[in-house]
Design brief:
Strand content: 35-45%
Structural class: alpha+beta
Radius of gyration: 12 Å
Helix content: 10-25%
Distance between the termini: 26 Å
Number of domains: 1
CATH architecture: Alpha-Beta Complex
Shape: globular
Strand order of the largest sheet: 2-3-1-5
CATH topology: Phenol Hydroxylase P2 Protein
Length: 98
Amino acid sequence: MKVGPVLRNNRETEAIVEAIKQDTEGHVEVTDRRAYLRVEAEDHCVVTRQTLDEILGKGAIEVPGGIEENLSSFKGYIKPQSDKVEFVSDIKDTHTQD
């Protein structure tokens, strides 16, 4: 199942998409709808604070929080964490592991 964010098209979007492409294993498909970008990957899509900091500078986008502010919607289930945001296809993957 394809999963990922639908991002408002603003000045931060290009950096978020680039970070997703770097952090996500496998192919990342981006569909530009002018007002928003749909970003999809198979079963798992991730963006990390570290990659965003490398692209935009430390703290330019808060993780989590800043990613969610740019979301219009998303496909799959979302798993925000202190250092990354993951989009997954199985709700079981959103539970923390002990």
